Give the backbone structure.
Amino acid sequence: MIKVAILGYGNIGRAAEEAIRAASDMELAGIFHHNDCLDNLDADVVLLCTPTREVPKYAAVLAAKGICTVDSFDIHGQISGLREQLNPLCETNKTTSIISAGWDPGTDSMVRALLMAMAPKGITYTNFGPGRSMGHSVAAKAIAGVKNALSMTIPLGTGVHRRMVYIELEKGADFKTVEAALLKDDYFAHDETHVIQVDDVDALNNVAHGVHLTRSGVSGETHNQRFEFNMEINNPALTGQVMVSCARAVYRMKARGQYGCKTMIEIAPVDMLAGTVEENIKALV
Amino acid sequence: MIKVAILGYGNIGRAAEEAIRAASDMELAGIFHHNDCLDNLDADVVLLCTPTREVPKYAAVLAAKGICTVDSFDIHGQISGLREQLNPLCETNKTTSIISAGWDPGTDSMVRALLMAMAPKGITYTNFGPGRSMGHSVAAKAIAGVKNALSMTIPLGTGVHRRMVYIELEKGADFKTVEAALLKDDYFAHDETHVIQVDDVDALNNVAHGVHLTRSGVSGETHNQRFEFNMEINNPALTGQVMVSCARAVYRMKARGQYGCKTMIEIAPVDMLAGTVEENIKALV
């Protein structure tokens, strides 16, 4: 049994707990909160389900103890830097960590890599939604006069997105003033954005999300090779499950001496699956 | 530069040649035919583009010489057995081979594995086509009275397929007799099959193929997670390209000491891509 602990217990931590309980080869080694002491931890793998900005700190502390971690660090421009920072720490302490394990970055990254291998020249478009953007919702909520906000990402194709922003106003706030401030905000200024006033943002809340990923490319000298990956999913449930599947992979990689900090495009799909390699070859290949 | 040789020069061998020439990190180390001598081969990797039944023999001969191979062995029920046979040979001779590298088995297998990691419970359906089935075309051609035949696979959903069989008759053959014999053949008896007489089968020939792969499953305890992978492709061009991308992976795995016989679900997607891991993380993760 792989002993998996959870650090941080929001939406993702709760979903990860369910996925651990559903896995026949894992046991829950504890749920910890941000300020808990990690000194006497008895776990093979710790899932870092904290806010993304706290991930680097905890990942470094645990790597230094030789404990495997899996996180869903999702600031795309900083992933390579985080890997560079954690990699020597993992190697020195003979351990392995998987960073940015979720669906984007994560499984979408694996699909993009696979499509590059199938058609090395061409363009991949990743279209997100319809679904809630956490970052944009937080940015909208920060505008003066906004009590609560929900920013939905709507895919328009070729990686272009519309923002549908539902806002609940503070008492006395003026809609037109708030709308103008929001449309000028850097989060919204570059996309087609619609601001809609509602009485109760919470009544609209829904963790559904989606991806529509396309590639048209060239295999060898043959053009017009067309590929498409779509999903419509519960966002935290999928993120939690992917992290738990990566817990299995990180445990196996460490056991084989594959130390270091890895992103999902660096792991073999079968390492994420319960059962033996032979069983999975018979079932899936 | 990775030196890649091709053994067998049919549709797949030709497509593989194009993919090698398009790769900036590879050079063509020669094209060999079935009876050529492999004794003085100067290649890092040999692509086995022979008929599938000849693959095990050549893969074993080359593994014994410590040379990496990639093949597209496609008899699903025999893949695990072939791996078991080649694995100790590769390990003894400190080399690596990738078997069943194509799109199914191959990249579809990786997608099926990835979807299992994302939603461990549920059903995956792989729907093939529209496209030519080589096996069914050969079986139809073997019926007495058939001069030439093309069997198209038409997807009906949930992994059920229709067979559209276009036949050109020998002089004096009776269509009704041929049709009855074909419908009783084990290749066709279990599927909805339509037999159509045409004057010229060759005029219908087209290497287009397609896949529509779906999974509805459970992440943790959350049901109704929906996934879909589609492609519409030139069949030999994609197979050749995937084999060439796997040549890069097998070369790197051997260099790292990851010896043995592997299927595509056992390889990390990034190993198939030109460029460094860091470059690919920045571009794809």
User: Anything to note?
Assistant: The first helix of chain B runs from residue 11 to 22. Residues 2-105+236-284 of chain B form a domain with the Rossmann fold fold (CATH 3.40.50.720).
